[in-house]
Amino acid sequence: MKKNRLIPVLLLKNGWLVQSKSFSRYQNLGDPITSVRRLSNWASDELIFIDITREGEYDMKRDDKGHPNRHTIEEIIRDVAKECLMPITIGGRIRTLQDIALRVGSGADKVCINTKPIETPEFVTQAAKEYGSQCIVVSIDVRLDSEGTWRIFKDGGKVSTGWNALHWAKEVESRGAGEILINSIDRDGARTGYDIPLLDQISKTVKIPVIAMGGVGEWEHFAEALDKTQVDAIAAANIFHYYDQSVYVAKQYLYERHYNVRPPDLILFDPREVKNAVL
Amino acid sequence: MKSVMLIDYDMGNITSVANAFEVAGCDVKISRDPAGIANAERLVLPGVGAFGEGMEHLTKLNLIDAMRTHALKNQRPFMGICLGMQLLADRGYEFGDHAGLTWIPGEVKRLEVKDLRLPHVGWNNLKVVKKKSPFLQGLSDEVDFYFVHSFHFIPKNVDVIAATCDYGGDFCAVIEKENIFGAQFHPEKSQKAGSLLLKNFLNL
């Protein structure tokens, strides 16, 4: 049986891993490579990396941590891909097919696009034709307006479009998106749980897999999304960086309660030294 | 040290496959040189993307005869991953009707999954049919692998099915015909289970 995926999301700003609140305040969490190594050891189902750099260069500031400092997103993706034998989705700052080529060529399995499709909806079709739908994740950032309608935002949640989120989800599906990552700006960093009615509506509207994002503060918030909506995957950012072995513990929580997830596992070896694993 | 050659035909995630084979412990070469490919010890055809485009790239790069020499004439171990497995078929129906390599009789069609979602993306377990297969040695039916696809291989002769997977019905997840192997999932993305499978391939 296919399992529901538990997906840590890493936000990268100028080469640093950050924590986000309401899409506007960011706190430094440190070196992305170190975090990826941990998330890999905890047997995450998949990783989503979103580059929210708005301007300026990539600089991890240090090169004394066992891996070199990096100055481009391709270099960072290459390093990340070497660390983990799991699927990696790379999002942020993707405006052209060339941007996708660069990321896929560096080791990304999928790319996540948000603003470009809003400006040029045909971009989804072109990207899906070139790389296959399975490679194209469209992320949708949403706020609930005063009339109770979910509206989508672009440019990192900064620019309102006035578009209806359910209509947009339907449209990107028909244009060839392989998955939708739905993120509630209202819930970002709030730790009060997912926007369940939003996830419910979106996952009923489309037939492609939906990844839930935004608001997880407790393990039971993951369970709630699986109980009450038809999302295929449950994602979160901040919570996975707060606790040691967070992914393992979250999976254990769900697995023990008979949710349809992979059993918790630890890959406590340097992947480069694996010789005789027995399953 | 054992060695494996990955066919570089501009179809997807060759870097990830190379990483995973290095982890599994072997010498990895990436090549599009027909002479090198024909004489490789072990050959892997990875691949992410559409069927027609995959065949077009192999044809343009003049690699099909070299692959035939390796797998059919010299009968050395060959593995196709995802699209690389699908290309072994006679025909594929993704964006039209395309001829495949015709090494293993069968067709590649869209999954019929009733009310489930497509693409089939995520971790799913296998049902091992060929329990004695050296390729699947050490893998139990509970072990999950990472899948991401909408099309599947329907072989004419069910004897080549080494393992199936259930997503709205059983489909062919692993193919085995003499020295030719194929996996619909991505061993290079499947952590411990994937490493074990790649090691099994190296030990053939």
Give the strand order of the largest sheet of chain A, numbering strands 1, 2, ... along the chain: 1-4-5-6-7-10-11-12
Q: How many structurally independent domains of chain A? A: 1
Helix/strand structural class of chain B: alpha/beta
The CATH topology assignment of chain A is TIM Barrel
Strand content of chain A: 15-25%
Sheet having the most strands of chain A: 8 strands, parallel, barrel
Strand order of the largest sheet of chain B: 2-1-3-4-13-12-11-8-9
CATH class of chain B: Alpha Beta
First and last CA, distance of chain A:
18 Å
Structure description:
The complex is a heterodimer of chains A (279) and B (204). Chain A contains ten helices and twelve strands. Chain A has 279 residues and is α/β, with parallel strands linked by helices. Chain A has an eight-stranded parallel β-barrel, surrounded by eight helices. Chain B is of the alpha/beta class. Chain B has a single domain, classed as Class I glutamine amidotransferase (GATase) domain (Rossmann fold, 3-Layer(aba) Sandwich), CATH 3.40.50. In chain B, the strands form two sheets. In chain B, strands 2-1-3-4-13-12-11-8-9 form a nine-stranded mixed beta sheet, sandwiched between helices. In chain B, strand 11 (161-166) and strand 12 form a beta hairpin. The A-B interface holds A 1-5, 43, 45-46, 78, 81-82, 85-87, 104-107, 109-110, 131-135, 178-179, 207-209, 232-233, 262, 265, 267, 271-272, 274-275, 277-279 and B 12-13, 15-16, 19-20, 22-25, 48-50, 117-125, 138-140, 143-144, 146-150, 166-167, 186, 188-196, 199.
Short description:
The complex is a heterodimer of chains A (279) and B (204). Helices cover 33% and strands 24% of the residues of chain A. Chain A is α/β, with parallel strands linked by helices and 279 residues long.
